[in-house]
Request: fold
Amino acid sequence: MNSHVDMKELTARQQAVLDATLAALVDEGDALTMSSVSRRASCSKETLYKWFGDRDGLLTATVRWQASKVNVPVVDKATLDAAALTATLESFARDWLTVISSGTSIALNRVAVSHAGSGKSKLGEIVLKNGRNAMGLRLEPVLLAARDAEILAFTNVQDCFRTFFGLVLRDTQIRLLLGDDLSLTQTQISADADNASAQFMALYGRNPHSKG
Amino acid sequence: MNSHVDMKELTARQQAVLDATLAALVDEGDALTMSSVSRRASCSKETLYKWFGDRDGLLTATVRWQASKVNVPVVDKATLDAAALTATLESFARDWLTVISSGTSIALNRVAVSHAGSGKSKLGEIVLKNGRNAMGLRLEPVLLAARDAEILAFTNVQDCFRTFFGLVLRDTQIRLLLGDDLSLTQTQISADADNASAQFMALYGRNPHSKG
DNA sequence: ACCGAACCGTAACGTTCGTTACGGTTTGAG
DNA sequence: CTCAAACCGTAACGAACGTTACGGTTCGGT
Reply:
């Protein structure tokens, strides 16, 4: 019961139902019931089952729907000098931190983590693919281009990306998932993003600024 | 119904029951039932309820029990030069990665994350306190001592620790929680720990090695 | 206006599981 | 040995929820 609804053919009504499911997921987490979703979406359970097969199908479709909505930050490779790269990294990190700290992302990651524990669906895989991996796919070409332009120096681009991941997210994601209230302001996020980018450039840049 | 069993007075039999619960948690995740636990522990459900109050009480006691068993890596502040500090960081990072990638840690973090979503218990708080925060409490004195000895340079010790966290764990924990199979060998872990420590020293050390 | 498909709201069914109850057994103190 | 408390194994109860079924309604095509 997986492909009751094809990703490419979602009617407006179905999208509305998935948005309602998303809202339920944020409010109630994995404890959401088919009843609560149908109530929120003003639709019948029969429709939910006809469209999405079963509970897992509904959750899977919801995760996919959200993934299709998230605009992974686009990176421009036009001008490539150290300053432009730093600015790109800062912007990328800022968007990333903003997404990660959103209620939607937290709820989705939580349900995906708990499903990965029971092995009762592929939500973990999907979230991983559209979260971390999508970010890597976007940023790695930039890192490679920067290496070609002799701005960065590294041997393994994936390790390089993983270090950037660590410098940007640090303990933020796990603390949010565990319920810690970080209450990140946009100012905080910007400062953290700039700091992470500077540290990354210090580690991988070929012309590091002299330290004060 | 929280304090049916005091942490400081666990009989051997009770500890055995909690170990069985821990095993059930690793195998079945949050889907474990009181029946499966009683079967594994060869005890009656009545005993589980008498000792731990209810399902949440059992899970909470189990998380606490595991936390009391984990030996957070002890750091020695005896000799303090750059080489000794690096060795300490490497050892610390190695132990940390080993714990994080263990089946027990993954299962515990998963159940804590999903409970944090439903807000139905304080498991997230407990895991946070005994996981991330315990690590910070251990390492921060070392960082401060290293700063006093003019080996490291930083202004905020907590930010400094969070950067170390990011460099060591990177995307490892979230990938494991989402079900990605990293199959970390001890060799891999050692290499990653050494690399993270070197990067940390490069960022915060006062006598960074000249770059090749 | 007529028809059928899709959909809504609600009721009903069956399973799972948390929780409680109970009879039989072990264990340790006196 | 005796007795009471603790514990084991199992059965039973009740609630929650996934899933299905059904009667009434909307709506687009003819």
